[in-house]
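[Discussion] Sanity-checking designs against the backbone

I'm trying to build intuition for which residues belong where. Below is a structure token string of 936 positions. I'd appreciate it if someone posts a full sequence so I can compare it with mine line by line.
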């Protein structure tokens, strides 16, 4: 016990080092780590400005203070919100977006992000005017969320609408976003109403909830009035119960589906008219990709090219392709057609495709969920690229890697740097945009020493992108943007420190994809004008700016290869790469330099210009005492034992530093179970301390199936206090732990302690991978035993395989087998009780247990086919096989938002299955189970 107290003191002392801080404004609690202090100061000011303007525009505000969590978990731009009538919460991710993003058109990343997420909360967190429904929402977080949720296209589309209306920027007025939607309309590929929420697996369809949703809602406002659309939100929370579809039909007189079809027709007609008005641009298809393709780079010898590809399952690969035509594929096509005609001379064979896919020479799969970004050729065999690496802070950060394509060797070159796009000076030196803690900066990085030399000044709100060098390394071009400005093209002479800003015409918006033509010393890039994309170039020697005509296609990238101009563009069936035939360049005259971005619409409640106001706020140490509370309901159906229900009161703070639950569980009808439990968990950085106390009164003979032993009643009590510390990162780690335990069964009491460790090793290459989890502990004192579990996962060609071993022994404490997953079971006798939902509770008891399980599925996260065998005291008790599934419902439904959700939405688990049990001492029969429960 003394050792445990020493550990707890260490936890308290470490808390000061890993401290989160809180700023309390009039309406928000802003939580942030100390490293993001300046970002948080500015956000605290912006939050109150946004709230004031939204209140004026909407006539609505939140009934409760909102929790705002500022952090940077993936070194990427994003954010999310969780609506709630009593605990609304939003998360702001500090890393700014890059120039080719749909969200690059903003007054500032911070202002757009705060506005978008706050609109979610105001839109979805309104209280119901039905008193009893609202009281239920107040006490039950799941009901609160279900009543708040609207179709995804509605919630995201409306937040995107107001992000645009109230700033004059945003995705409604973004040229790249408009170009994508127009082109899809011209191809007849706008999503159906049914696919508007989550897409139809075509390329970019998952983004259409934002891009098309906002345009449909804007069309509704333009044709029916903003008040009519606003009435839908009022009707949804009326005294009379209505879902979105009913509320919409009542306000508009027609269903959303009907009006959406009309919108699609009108928008598509206008898109076709705009396409006809464009001058023709002759192009020849050069390569097709089945889904996403980005970061295309030709090799130094111009005979190959790199490309990062991603399929609709988000599997990412880096491929090397031949740049020449695929004559082998063409020959095979012709031979196949000849064979068809030889067998059936009257048949009509396939016509020749516009282009045969280029031959793939090598492929590298993303490793350990890190993705692949911005590859560059160092030479013909060595390739640098960026991937995300895990940290000990439960986060990922961008780092540089080297892939040797001929041997497959992979080497990490930086650690914790935050690199995004970069250019190579030599094998040891790069120039990169580094983004950490919300700051963006151009840096020269020495890869051997890790030394970072600033090229630009880091200033909150300023963002840099696309640093590209000419072949001689004498000139650097890059993009930059500041709050309320538009993206600027900067050309810097590194030999004389001369900086030239290349201004574009005033009407242009969207600027990305810089590319030097080595043989011409011309800088190519993509710009946007009037909802279309344009290829432009800047001549370094003559300082002449030229452009090609507007293109109907949503261009992603421009490349120059052997005097030929190539563009990649988004299409519904995947990204395509085409060569522009006989490009007609026109000189562009810029009459006046323009820095400020144009606001497309003037709204009477428009936000003031974005301001990075870092005025210091009074901040206090984050307190876990501000808790959310919820009723937590659980239940289980077990054909082998009994059905049960449970109710608990559950609470936690928004950062989940202090979580707890107190509840009871009872069997239905037969009186086989009465249990109670209390759990408390304190988490600070990588320290975790848990307190479990449980009681369970079981009547084994009242279960649906008999047990092997004798006895009509079994009472269990357990008290356990455990502390652990995790070393390592989120993927590969080891966690030593120590605890004291008191167990009582009937009138017999065992006092003891437990020490051990658990660890994880993960290697994942998407198509193949392995993972190992090992847990082992020694039981001391009157417990006098041990336990260990080994779980092995492997996948081959995406097919998963699972194997596990569970072994436990005690020469004094009885070890029991059987029963489903109940919170009262795991808390009251989880140390010595092995859960098996296909057997009744206390089915078999002994001093030693050994169990094996093997399982597989057709895909990770899907139901498993399993086989399991149990041994007690060296005798095979039985075996079971069937199909089952178990998952964390909280993480499956909420994703990373589950880390900050209200108490009733976290720690929720689900298990279900059907199978057959067989054994010498039992009836061979089919059994089923279903369980939903909470467990910290």
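Best answer:
Here's mine. Compare freely.
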């Amino acid at each position: 016990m003394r050792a445990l107290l020493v550990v707890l003191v260490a936890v308290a002392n470490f808390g000061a080092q890993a401290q989160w801080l809180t700023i309390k404004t009039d309406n928000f609690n802003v939580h942030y780590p100390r490293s993001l202090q300046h970002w948080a100061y500015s956000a605290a000011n912006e939050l109150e400005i946004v709230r004031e303007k939204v209140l004026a525009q909407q006539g609505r505000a939140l009934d409760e203070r909102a929790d705002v969590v500022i952090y940077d978990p993936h070194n990427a731009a994003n954010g999310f919100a969780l609506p709630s009538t009593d605990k609304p919460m939003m998360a702001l991710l500090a890393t700014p977006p890059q120039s080719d993003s749909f969200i690059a058109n903003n007054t500032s990343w911070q202002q757009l992000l705060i506005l978008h997420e706050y609109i979610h909360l105001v839109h979805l967190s309104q209280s119901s005017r039905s008193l009893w429904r609202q009281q239920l929402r107040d006490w039950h977080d799941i009901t609160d969320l279900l009543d708040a949720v609207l179709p995804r296209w509605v919630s995201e589309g409306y937040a995107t609408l107001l992000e645009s209306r109230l700033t004059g920027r945003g995705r409604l007025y973004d040229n790249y976003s408009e170009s994508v939607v127009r082109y899809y309309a011209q191809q007849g590929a706008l999503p159906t109403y049914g696919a508007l929420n989550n897409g139809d697996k075509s390329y970019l369809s998952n983004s259409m909830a934002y891009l098309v949703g906002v345009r449909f809602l804007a069309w509704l406002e333009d044709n029916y009035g903003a008040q009519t659309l606003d009435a839908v939100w009022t009707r949804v929370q009326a005294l009379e119960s209505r879902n979105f579809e009913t509320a919409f039909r009542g306000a508009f007189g027609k269903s959303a589906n009907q009006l959406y079809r009309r919108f699609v027709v009108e928008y598509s007609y206008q898109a076709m008219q705009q396409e006809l008005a464009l001058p023709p641009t002759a192009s020849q298809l050069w390569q097709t990709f089945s889904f996403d393709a980005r970061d295309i780079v030709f090799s130094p010898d111009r005979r190959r090219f790199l490309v990062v590809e991603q399929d609709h399952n988000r599997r990412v690969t880096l491929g090397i392709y031949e740049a020449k035509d695929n004559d082998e594929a063409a020959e095979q096509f012709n031979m196949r057609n000849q064979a068809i005609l030889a067998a059936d001379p009257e048949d009509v064979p396939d016509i020749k495709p516009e282009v045969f896919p280029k031959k793939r020479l090598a492929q590298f799969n993303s490793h350990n969920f890190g993705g692949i970004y911005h590859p560059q050729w160092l030479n013909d065999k060595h390739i640098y690229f960026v991937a995300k690496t895990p940290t000990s802070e439960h986060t990922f950060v961008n780092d540089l890697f080297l892939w040797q394509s001929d041997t497959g060797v992979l080497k990490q070159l930086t650690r914790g740097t935050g690199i995004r796009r970069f250019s190579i000076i030599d094998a040891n030196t790069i120039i990169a945009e580094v983004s950490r803690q919300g700051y963006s900066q151009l840096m020269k990085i020495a890869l051997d020493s890790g030394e970072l030399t600033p090229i630009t000044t880091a200033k909150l709100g300023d963002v840099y992108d696309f640093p590209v060098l000419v072949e001689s390394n004498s000139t650097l071009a890059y993009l930059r943007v500041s709050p309320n400005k538009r993206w600027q093209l900067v050309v810097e002479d590194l030999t004389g420190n001369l900086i030239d800003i290349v201004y574009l015409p005033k009407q242009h918006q969207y600027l990305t994809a810089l590319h030097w033509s080595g043989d011409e010393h011309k800088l190519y890039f993509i710009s946007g004008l009037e909802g279309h994309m344009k290829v432009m170039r800047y001549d370094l020697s003559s300082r002449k700016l030229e452009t090609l005509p507007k293109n109907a296609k949503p261009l992603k990238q421009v490349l120059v290869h052997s005097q030929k101009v190539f563009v990649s563009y988004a299409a519904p069936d995947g990204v395509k790469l085409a060569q522009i035939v006989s490009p007609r360049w026109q000189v562009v005259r810029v009459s006046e330099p323009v820095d400020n971005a144009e606001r497309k619409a003037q709204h009477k409640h428009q936000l003031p210009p974005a301001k990075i106001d870092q005025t210091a706020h009074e901040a206090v140490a984050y307190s876990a005492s501000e808790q959310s509370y919820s009723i937590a309901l659980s239940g289980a159906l077990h054909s082998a034992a009994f059905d049960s229900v449970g109710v608990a009161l559950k609470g936690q703070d928004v950062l989940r530093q202090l979580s707890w639950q107190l509840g009871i569980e009872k069997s239905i009808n037969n009186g086989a179970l009465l249990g109670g439990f209390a759990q408390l968990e304190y988490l600070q950085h990588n320290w975790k301390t848990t307190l479990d106390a449980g009681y369970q009164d079981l009547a084994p003979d009242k279960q649906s199936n008999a047990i092997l032993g004798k006895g009509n009643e079994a009472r269990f009590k357990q008290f356990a206090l455990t502390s652990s510390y995790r070393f390592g990162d989120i993927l590969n780690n080891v966690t030593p732990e120590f605890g004291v335990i008191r167990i009582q069964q009937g009138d017999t009491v065992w006092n003891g302690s437990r020490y051990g460790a658990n660890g994880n090793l993960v290697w994942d290459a998407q198509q193949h991978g392995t993972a190992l989890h090992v847990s082992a502990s020694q039981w001391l004192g009157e417990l006098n035993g041990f336990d260990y579990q080994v779980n092995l996962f492997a996948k081959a060609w995406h097919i998963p395989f699972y194997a596990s071993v569970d072994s436990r022994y005690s020469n004094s404490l009885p070890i029991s087998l059987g029963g489903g997953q109940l919170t009262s079971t795991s808390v009251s006798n989880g140390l010595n009780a092995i859960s098996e939902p296909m057997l009744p509770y206390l089915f078999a008891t002994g001093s030693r247990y050994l169990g094996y399980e093997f399982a597989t599925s057709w895909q990770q996260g899907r139901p498993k086919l399993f086989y399991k065998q149990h041994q007690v005291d060296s005798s095979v008790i039985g075996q079971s096989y069937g199909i089952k599934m178990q998952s964390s419902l909280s993480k499956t439904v909420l994703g990373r938002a589950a880390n900050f959700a209200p108490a009733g939405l976290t720690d929720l688990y689900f298990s279900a299955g059907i199978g057959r049990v067989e054994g010498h001492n039992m009836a061979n029969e089919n059994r089923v189970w279903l369980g939903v429960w909470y467990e910290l």
